[in-house]
Design a protein that fits this description.
By secondary structure, the chain is an all-alpha fold. The protein has 25 helices and no strands. The chain is globular.
């Protein structure tokens, strides 16, 4: 393995075909986003049942103002029954408090148009402030939409008694929506298999094995699973970890399953990093991929039969030059070990004391403090007030959807807000115009029963929910399809012969987007590049300062802390990717410094992910290995990698990126010592752990490759 340390020299796989056109790329994106994945049909079914149940209650009992009640089940989280219950409670509580504010404010400021206008302005400011500061985002959005709807109600030239009843009916139907969501989640959660954790581990093992197999057998088609791998990586294992806590396992079972789950999640992260780096394969790499894929199939099969898996040991038969493949190999070995024997040193002991929980709060801290929330609220409320003043001045109340657009699409980052605005517009055009117009003209005149109407509503909701369970790239369009269709066809208890509601909804959204672009995007605006630079540099520093194993310290707290730090950095990777994608919706051409930063960030992300996973693997190996090989050398490698990562963070902050350079004498000396130690260990002259040396070599090469990136 004399050349095994030269990992950074791996050559990218050359493209064998011309670049696809934008139309082909769009079609490929839609295919991947619309394809099914484990759990998606059941998730869509739960959304459809909740929305349809509320719609049925609205139509049967003729509840006025029921659109929000049929829409709110989509806002409620469905990660687990606990999260659904918590989210529904937040939405119901927020709307209850909002009802009190609306009734008291509207009645106190009644009788004077000027005071009524001040109340509207203050309510909109409060809505945007809560969108920025409230911890549960869906509750803030629900409250903002409730304010928008009730402002329209209290602007109507009707009696105060009728306006009050309409407000209370709106709150009641929201309660129905929240209750229906919780009830359906409870009923369907009872149908979940009791071994959901084992099933989740199996899904991740099967996916990793499939990708590795296609990596060798079908290089042209293996990237088709990229979106599925990325979706699993983004979701993480938090939901399954909560299942372990709630399932009543013994302490030893919890430890065993938690370890296996963490390793299966790590395999997904490693697979995502492998697909992003797209390294060339040597013959040894191909053999290793096939061997690891076969072992993953054996593990998954044993888990399905509840059998103890056989011991897996590849015995260094495959000398891979890809650090990610080496880490995948090691993770599979650890997974087999964790499931094949009682490896817990604290078996029979009392479980460790849980870490103290942080103080609960309903507000989130802003990066720039309280001033940041106030600036956000001012920007958003001015945009919404401009829309409100326009449509009230011209007497075109149908454009009230513009205010809702401002609330729904207000995000701190300009590019992300524009992305959401375009998805809202596209969703409303499809839901209100394409589906709404078609239903009004061709389908609804033929319907003469509540059953037929329910089936039509469920079909539209199914389409929107299926799109809404895609990745964030297009998911919001599906949510807006459902809302737009409900606004057109659920605002009265008979067939709507007029196309005016759909027209006004589309024009109102266009007005809201225009106001956001003119006001929100130019007042204290923050571009994706402005947020990308500090977040990228701080993420690199987090990797550099990752907790190292402390000899003699308890293993469990160190393992928990390392997992928490790794999860936090992984979440930052997703935020960084979202910022890079949001930059496409901002002004072009980019200034040279901004363009250079975006190019570097795109190049850095997969390599930073690799550096993180290799470093955490090295730290974890130090904690579980029975013996250590040249501990001083390992410490020097970790310290040197931290120094190089700190330099990279400094370069990002100063926008002074260095060109690729030769290895510094210090780095070359460390690599030579690692290579020498590896050769001596292979020849049996020293008793040394080859895995530790391989991890050190991989870490140093990946970090140096980052430091000298183009």
């Amino acid at each position: 393995m004399s050349e095994a340390a030269d990992i950074a020299a791996a050559i990218k796989v050359p493209s064998q075909s011309s670049e696809p056109s934008w139309l082909e790329s769009l079609w490929g994106l839609l295919q991947s986003e619309m394809s099914s994945y484990p759990g998606r049909p059941l998730l869509v079914l739960r959304i459809v049942l909740a929305c349809t149940t509320v719609m049925f209650a609205i139509v049967v009992f003729r509840i006025p103002g029921g659109v929000l009640g049929a829409y709110y089940p989509i806002l409620i989280s469905r990660d687990s029954f606990r999260s659904t219950r918590r989210s529904a409670l937040w939405v119901a509580t927020a709307c209850t408090v909002g009802t009190a504010e609306v009734i008291l404010g509207a009645m106190l400021f009644a009788g004077s148009p000027f005071l009524h206008l001040l109340w509207v302005w203050g309510t909109l400011f409060l809505a945007f402030y809560l969108v920025s500061s409230l911890k549960v985002y869906e509750a803030a959005l629900a409250l903002g939409l409730f304010f928008t709807n009730t402002i329209t109600i209290w602007d109507q030239p009707v009696s105060a008694d009728l306006r009050l009843r309409q407000t209370l009916f709106t709150l009641m139907v929201i309660f129905i929506g929240c209750g229906a969501s919780v009830l359906i989640e409870y009923l369907l959660a009872r149908t979940h298999p009791p071994d959901a954790v084992i099933g989740g581990i199996q899904e991740r093992l099967d996916l990793t094995g499939s990708v590795l197999r296609e990596y060798v057998e079908d290089p042209a088609g293996w990237k088709k699973q990229f979106h599925l791998v990325r979706r699993y990586s983004t979701r993480g294992t938090g939901t399954l970890r909560s299942f372990i806590i709630e399932a009543g396992y013994s302490f030893e079972q919890r430890q065993r399953l938690s370890t296996a789950l963490a390793l299966s999640g790590r395999l997904i992260d490693l697979t995502a990093s492998l697909m992003e780096t797209d390294e060339a394969l040597t013959e040894a790499d191909r053999k290793l991929c096939i061997a690891v894929s076969s072992n993953l199939s054996i593990l998954s099969s044993n888990l399905s039969r509840r059998e103890i898996p056989e011991w897996i040991d590849l015995d260094d038969r495959f000398e891979t030059q890809a650090p990610i493949l080496a880490e995948i190999e090691r993770a599979v070995e650890l997974l087999a070990e964790s499931l094949s024997q009682a490896m817990w040193s604290n078996r029979g002991e009392a479980p460790p004391r849980p870490a103290p929980k942080p103080a609960r709060t309903i507000f989130v801290p802003h990066a720039s403090g309280q001033e940041g929330h106030l600036k956000f609220a001012i920007r958003g409320s001015l945009s919404a007030i401009a829309c409100y003043m326009f449509y009230m001045s011209v007497g075109w109340v149908g454009l009230s959807a513009s205010v809702a657009t401002c609330i729904l699409t207000a995000l701190p980052i300009t590019g992300a807000a524009r992305h959401k605005q375009l998805l809202r517009f596209a969703g409303v055009v499809l839901g209100a115009c394409a589906l709404g117009f078609t239903a009004q003209m061709l389908i609804l005149p033929q319907i003469d029963s509540i059953l037929s109407y329910t089936l039509l509503f469920a079909g539209v909701t199914f389409l929107g929910a299926w799109i809404g369970t895609s990745s964030p790239r297009i998911a919001y369009a599906g949510v807006q399809i459902i809302l737009a269709y409900e606004l057109v066809n659920l605002n009265r208890f008979s067939i709507n012969p007029s196309l005016v509601p759909a027209r006004d909804t589309v024009l109102g959204i266009a007005l809201g987007i225009g106001a956001m672009w003119l006001v929100f995007d130019h007042l204290w605006a923050t571009s994706s590049v402005d947020s990308l630079r500090p977040m990228l540099s701080s993420t690199v520093r987090q990797i550099a300062r990752l907790t190292e194993s402390v000899p003699g310290a308890p293993a469990a707290p160190q393992r928990v802390r390392l997992e928490q730090q790794t999860s936090e950095i992984m979440r930052r990777f997703e935020k960084l990717r979202a910022l890079i994608e949001a930059s496409y919706f901002e002004a072009f051409p980019k200034a040279p410094p901004a363009g250079q930063l975006l190019e570097r960030a795109r190049d850095y992300l997969p390599q930073l992910r690799a550096a993180l996973l290799i470093r955490t693997g090295l730290i974890h190996h130090q904690g579980v290995a029975a013996s250590h090989c040249q501990p001083d050398l390992v410490v020097q490698v970790q310290q040197r990698s931290s120094v190089l990562l700190e330099r990279i963070a400094q370069q990002i902050e100063n926008n002074s990126f260095s060109s690729r350079t030769a290895l510094e004498p210090t780095d070359q000396d460390l690599l030579d010592r690692l290579r020498s130690g590896f050769d001596l260990a292979r020849e049996g002259e020293i008793d040394c752990d080859l895995t530790e040396l391989r991890l050190c070599s991989s870490l140093l090469n990946v970090v140096h490759h980052l430091h000298g990136s183009r």
